[in-house]
């Protein structure tokens, strides 16, 4: 175990409650980016923080601007993490946080050790689904969530879809589910007065129409569908070969598949795949539209960032995407896996710059009105403080958990 967590002596009499955030891996990703925003913006005078990565905390931790956030890596080996649980319980007993906040199924196993360590408040957040359980129907995953349910104090769901799943399928009492949608920094992500591509982008000609995607290149994000739709759009509207270009930012195991699709479609030279980037705001300001072809989503930070950047968004109708994209107003929703519909949406915006610009303006206005980052941060702060106030005086003498209404 590697740690930069403070000792009891170092903590002294600091009156601020400690929030221990547990994730499977602290690395590039939407969930992790949301946590970074939270850590950077929650008022320092109100909370202290520790980030516990069950595997590792990569250099992504540098995005956390506060120097008082502790990072702990537990280096969990692949497979069952049963042997890790006693270590985690001891760690949490030493840290004595007011709240343990786990995120997604991969970190849910940390909740029972938090209860054993007498952590008074255990929050679990549902942020999205994995490629092996796109609709939440996997019986093993359902059982795991139901078995852990008695140990969770409060749930956070980032979308209506996930909130309904917790209540209707996992049988969590509705009063124990709080919906907090992701927020976006509309000052960092803003429209460009003139589209300007990054210096190393080969598509700098202002006459080009640039369609882009940003995210890890993995099966659940399904950028292969975008590559197929791009090729299909060129086949359906051959004149677009002169103007339509593709940018896919990110790295991951899907890259060879994407490159093969583009090569087979005689479109590899019309695409730029620069890998993982730290200049996403600039990347977005160099696009004319953003596509999110995912198989499953919670509330996509990428969509929010594109909306704030004044881009029309074409997305699959999965998870929380329909909550973000106003179909026909700020973008287009298509069925998951529908190459033809996605190709038609690309052609529509590539062929009508006025329509794309209007959708982009509407997207920016919607982001400002509904998805304020400061609003998201305050909702988390209020939730933390409300739960702490409700538990004040309980200390470590906690009752054993009892099952909530519903069958396991």
Strand order of the largest sheet: 1-4-3-2-5-6-7-8
The unreliable regions are 394-408
Counted beta strands? 14
| Biggest sheet details | 8 strands, mixed
Strand content: 15-25%
Shape: elongated
Distance between the termini: 34 Å
The helix/strand class is alpha/beta
Mean pLDDT: 92
**Helix run count:** 14
Gyration radius from CA atoms, angstroms:
22 Å
Question: Concise description?
Answer:
By secondary structure, this protein is of the alpha/beta class. The protein contains 14 helices and 14 strands.
Can you describe this structure?
By secondary structure, this protein is an alpha/beta fold. It has helices at 8-11, 30-41, 84-95, 111-116, 139-148, 160-168, 223-236, 255-264, 280-284, 301-308, 321-324, 339-351, 353-370, 373-391, and strands at residues 2-3, 18-23, 48-53, 70-73, 99-103, 121-126, 154-157, 177-179, 209-214, 244-249, 271-275, 289-292, 313-316, 331-334. An eight-stranded mixed sheet has the order 1-4-3-2-5-6-7-8, with helices on both faces. The longest helix is centred in the last third of the chain and has 19 residues, at 373-391. The chain starts with a strand and ends in a 17-residue tail after the last helix. The model is unreliable at 394-408 (pLDDT under 50).
Structural features:
eight-stranded mixed β-sheet; alpha/beta; six-stranded parallel β-sheet; disordered C terminus; 35% helix; 408 residues
List the helices and strands and how they pair.
Blueprint: E1 2-3, H1 8-11, E2 18-23, H2 30-41, E3 48-53, E4 70-73, H3 84-95, E5 99-103, H4 111-116, E6 121-126, H5 139-148, E7 154-157, H6 160-168, E8 177-179, E9 209-214, H7 223-236, E10 244-249, H8 255-264, E11 271-275, H9 280-284, E12 289-292, H10 301-308, E13 313-316, H11 321-324, E14 331-334, H12 339-351, H13 353-370, H14 373-391
Parallel strand pairs: 2-3, 2-5, 3-4, 5-6, 6-7, 7-8, 9-10, 9-12, 10-11, 12-13, 13-14
Antiparallel strand pairs: 1-4
């Amino acid at each position: 175990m590697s740690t930069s967590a403070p000792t009891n002596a170092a903590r002294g009499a600091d009156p601020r409650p400690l929030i221990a955030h547990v994730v499977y891996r602290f690395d590039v990703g939407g969930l992790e980016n949301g946590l970074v925003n939270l850590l950077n913006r929650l008022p320092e005078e109100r909370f202290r923080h520790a980030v516990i990565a069950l595997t590792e905390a990569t250099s992504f931790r540098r995005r956390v601007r506060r120097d008082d956030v502790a990072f702990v890596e537990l280096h969990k080996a692949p497979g069952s993490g049963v042997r890790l649980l006693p270590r985690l319980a001891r760690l949490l007993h030493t840290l004595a946080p007011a709240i343990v906040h786990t995120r997604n199924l991969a970190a849910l196993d940390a909740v029972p050790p938090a209860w054993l360590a007498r952590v008074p408040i255990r929050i679990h957040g549902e942020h999205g689904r994995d490629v092996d359980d796109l609709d939440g129907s996997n019986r093993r995953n359902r059982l795991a969530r139901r078995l852990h349910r008695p140990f969770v104090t409060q749930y956070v769901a980032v979308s209506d879809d996930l909130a309904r799943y917790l209540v209707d399928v996992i049988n969590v009492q509705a009063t124990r589910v709080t919906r907090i949608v992701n927020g976006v920094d509309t000052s960092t992500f803003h429209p460009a007065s003139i589209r300007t591509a990054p210096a190393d982008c080969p598509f700098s000609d202002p006459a080009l129409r640039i369609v882009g995607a940003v995210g890890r290149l993995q099966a659940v994000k399904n950028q292969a569908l975008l590559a197929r739709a791009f090729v299909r759009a060129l086949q359906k509207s051959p004149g677009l070969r002169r103007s339509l270009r593709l940018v896919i930012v990110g790295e991951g195991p899907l890259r060879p598949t994407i490159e093969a699709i583009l090569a087979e479609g005689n479109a590899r030279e019309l695409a730029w795949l620069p890998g993982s980037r730290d200049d996403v705001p600039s990347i977005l300001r160099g696009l004319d539209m953003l596509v999110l072809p995912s198989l499953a989503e919670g509330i996509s930070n990428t969509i929010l960032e594109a909306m704030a950047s004044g881009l029309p968004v074409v997305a699959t109708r999965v998870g929380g995407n329909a909550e973000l994209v106003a179909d026909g107003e700020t973008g287009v929703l298509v069925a998951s896996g529908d190459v033809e519909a996605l190709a038609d949406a690309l052609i529509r915006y590539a062929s009508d710059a006025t329509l794309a610009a209007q959708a982009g303006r509407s997207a920016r206005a919607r982001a400002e009105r509904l998805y304020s980052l400061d609003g998201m941060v305050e909702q988390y702060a209020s939730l933390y403080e409300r739960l702490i106030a409700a538990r004040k005086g309980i200390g470590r003498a906690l009752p054993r958990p009892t099952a909530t209404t519903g069958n396991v």
